[in-house]
């Protein structure tokens, strides 16, 4: 019988250590960390403040270089080949002088291979593509509005569109729903889930919200601080599409409680206050 080759991870951290600062003022943000993320996966990183979640995002996107160890994307060391990345943060940072359509269109103007065709396709295909995506996230009819005319939830929807419009191989989400009220946040989980189901990008989500991690991710990696390490890697077994109602089910609540206990145990002790 022919042997089946093992599936190759799309992103791999091998014994990665990252230290910020120099001389006697250094912080080991990440210590000998291993992580494998497969194509089309949705991985959430959770853990106490300062455990190195954002550092992992920066390493995977090549914004910083590991002090030691290897960061591989698509089987090659990061930086060897350009990788298309989409990002969304807590603050949607839209350009105020551009309409929603033009804000979402920006990556097509900047990122290869799209930028080469930008002028030619701008009025046609690219514009339709932006409109279709805005429609999918419930922003149909708002493309001519300016950022100041929209609510925080609407801007975050647009920010997800901007992160996805250029079909990124990797989607990095750094607490994208952290500044929204609970209802808007839950609505946006649904939007994000629909986008993931229809496009299957490889996603890494950093969040402090354990319910959000369990709603959205296929895998949840729990980290500890000082030094930053992954101490637990959980498959999330719940069927998709997930709903807010499911977050009250016993299995869902047990999972988030277990994660919470792990994080509390992994948090550095609070300094005593006089
Ligand atoms: N540019 C930097 N210079 C020095 N130290 C840094 C720098 N960036 C991060 N750190 C430190 O590295 C550690 C990990 O930071 P990182 O931002 O990755 O953590 P995090 O888990 O994303 O934190 P949070 O949940 O609070 O956003 C922290 O102790 C932080 O203070």
TrEMBL record:
Q: Which residues form a coiled coil?
A: none
Q: Which UniProt keywords apply?
A: ATP-binding, Nucleotide-binding, Transport
Domain of life from the UniProt record: Bacteria
Among its keywords, does the record have Kinase? no
Q: Does the keyword Transport apply?
A: yes
Q: Which InterPro entries match?
A: AAA+_ATPase (IPR003593), ABC_transporter-like_ATP-bd (IPR003439), ABC_transporter-like_CS (IPR017871), ABC_transporter_ATP-bind (IPR050166), P-loop_NTPase (IPR027417)
Record-linked Pfam families: ABC_tran (PF00005)
> Where do the ABC transporter domain residues begin and end?
11-250
Q: Which GO terms describe its molecular function?
A: ATP binding; ATP hydrolysis activity
Please give the family membership noted in the entry. Belongs to the ABC transporter superfamily.
Q: What is this protein called?
A: ABC transporter ATP-binding protein
**What organism does the record attribute this protein to?**
Pseudolabrys taiwanensis
């Amino acid at each position: 019988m022919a042997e089946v080759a093992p599936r190759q991870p799309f992103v791999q951290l091998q014994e990665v250590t990252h230290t910020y600062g120099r001389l006697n003022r250094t912080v080991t943000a990440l210590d000998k960390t291993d992580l494998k993320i497969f194509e089309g996966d949705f991985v959430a990183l959770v853990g106490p403040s300062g455990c190195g979640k954002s550092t992992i995002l920066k390493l995977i996107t090549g914004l910083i270089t590991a002090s030691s160890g290897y960061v591989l994307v698509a089987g090659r060391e990061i930086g060897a080949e350009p990788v298309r990345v989409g990002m969304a943060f807590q603050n949607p940072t839209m350009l105020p002088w551009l309409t929603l359509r033009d804000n979402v269109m920006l990556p097509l103007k900047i990122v290869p291979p799209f930028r080469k065709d930008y002028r030619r396709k701008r009025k046609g295909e690219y514009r339709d593509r932006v409109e279709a995506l805005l429609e999918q996230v419930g922003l149909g009819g708002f493309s001519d509005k300016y950022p100041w005319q929209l609510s925080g939830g609407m801007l975050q929807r647009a920010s997800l569109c901007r992160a996805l419009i250029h079909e990124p191989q990797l989607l990095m989400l750094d607490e994208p729903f952290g500044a929204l009220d609970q209802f808007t946040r839950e609505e946006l989980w649904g939007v994000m889930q629909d986008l993931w189901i229809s496009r299957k990008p490889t996603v890494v989500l950093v969040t402090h919200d354990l319910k959000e991690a369990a709603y959205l991710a296929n895998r949840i990696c729990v980290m500890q601080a000082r030094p930053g390490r992954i101490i637990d890697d959980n498959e999330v077994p719940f069927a998709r599409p997930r709903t807010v109602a499911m977050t009250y089910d016993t299995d869902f609540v047990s999972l988030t409680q277990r994660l919470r206990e792990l994080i509390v145990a992994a948090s550095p002790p609070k300094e005593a206050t006089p």
